[in-house]
Amino acid sequence: MPETFLDSTELILNMGPQHPSTHGVLRVILKLDGEKVTGTDCVIGYLHRGVEKIGENRTYVMFAPYVDRMDYVAAVSNGLGYCLAIEKLLGVEAPPRAQAVRVILTELNRIASHLFWLGTHALDIGATTPVMYCLREREEVLKIFEAYCGARLTTHAFRIGGLQYETYDGFEQQCLAFCDAFPARVDDYEALLTGNRIWIDRLKGVGILNADDCKAYGVTGPMLRAAGVKWDIRKALPYSGYEKYDFEIPVGYNGDTYDRYIVRMQEMRQSARIVRQAVQSLPEGPIMAKVPKVIKPAPGEVYVSIEAPKGELGYYVVSDGTINPYRLRVRPPSFVNLQSLDKMAKGALIADVVAIIGTIDIVLGEVDR
Amino acid sequence: MRKFLRTIFLIDLFEGLRVTLRYQHPKNIYTEQYPAERPQVAERYRGAPRLNKNPDTNETLCISCDLCAIACPEALIVVTSIRNPETRRKELTEFTYDTSRCMFCGLCEDACPVDALELTQDFEFAQYSRDGLIWDRQMLEDGPRPTPYKA
Predict the structure, then answer these.
(1) Nearest CB to B44 within list A69, A150, A191
(2) A318 in helix, strand or coil?
(3) Are A63 and B73 within 8 A, CB to CB?
(4) Which residues in chain A have Cβ-Cβ distances shorter than 8 Å to B72?
(5) What is the pLDDT of residues A306-338, one digit of tens each?
(6) Which of A34, A43, B78, B105 counts the most CB atoms within 10 A of its CB?
(7) Taking the domain B49-142, which CATH number applies?
(8) Distance between CA A82 and CA A85 in Å, rounded?
(9) Can you tell me whether residue A325 is helix, strand or coil?
(10) pTM for this one?
(11) Domain A6-368 class?
């Protein structure tokens, strides 16, 4: 069968940057043959703020609030990665209590991020109910953040060397109450979506990315795990005391959109498990390591990566011995994962492109930085 | 066969519908009717800045050490002071805080050695112009005066 019939030319169609399903300001140029997508081109940069350059002009402490503004859905994870990178550069380690609190908040943030993803992804595909329930549970998580550090979204919860804030009264109870109620809520979402015939029809076999392609593109996070690769930095290169907690890495088989959905649902359950273990074994002690007042690391470079909700989030920091970083490079998971859009969308329909963009779980603040 | 019957009788759709119906009771309403219903923000909430005064003497607590201005990543705090020739101490004359550029990270209140600068639970300080968002010392000490919401 020929590629085109009767010399028909391909149709170029703009999707975005204001399309509601592009999750921000992503512009996708679709090359269409009828309704079939023959190629895509992503135009990014609408939200570019020059975060890496800002980092070069700020001291190490001052830059910490800015990292929250990259992946604003999972600000706590960004802050953790940055703090770990600078701590490695300084050669200090956060005290055990600080590490445990960090794990609790990061895992709660993973749940919040996945919930937001699930709600908006379902909304893109046409299921308008789950977003109401997802945001309700996310609100519970945000209330914990607000009570802990005073902000809901761009939290600035962690400081280099530990924590600024001690946990508040009732922190443990609130986290445990959330962990108790949460699995039943995930069951609700699964009742709404997992078996739903429309959901299955829209997701099964759409946007397949197998393990080899994932590795070739550098795709990480739930997308990689949905293709069957058991790779999670929390297990592979444990940081912040993750080796102490018992959890599983959920993996998929087909690497399609449905598997990614299943993997993320399982991850939420696992995160709730980690939160429960961390709260129950929360050690007493100091929350701040000995860090000099003016942070001036010795010349050197360091790369630290953590498992953010969307994949591997890496910070590469070069110090020249002054109070500002010489170079600060961020490896954002969404930016790398977005590359695979073209591969997944080729041969799909326009309606599937919406599902595929949703399944990558991009946050444009992080893609553009 | 079982799968076939589930398909025929739309079991999967009814299971989802059951979840929806279960949350129909009014006690499951979660939405906050914001302007009519005031949210209770957390104690540590980082909202509008305030420059604290000593409640007994009504003098400012600020010692014009300039640490908040140094700590601020956006450099939006300007502290001006004059040195009192008798006591040899710096006395605060003007304190400017540009809330339009503030990202409420809390680094300034962490830096303050005397708890003079504080981010309070106030979260409503919308203004009609950008100039109104640059707070002077009086505004910081007395708090913002938002336009009240009329229902």
Answers:
(1) A150
(2) strand
(3) yes
(4) 62
(5) 988 988 999 999 998 888 889 889 998 988 988
(6) B105
(7) 3.30.70.3270
(8) 5
(9) strand
(10) 0.87
(11) mainly alpha
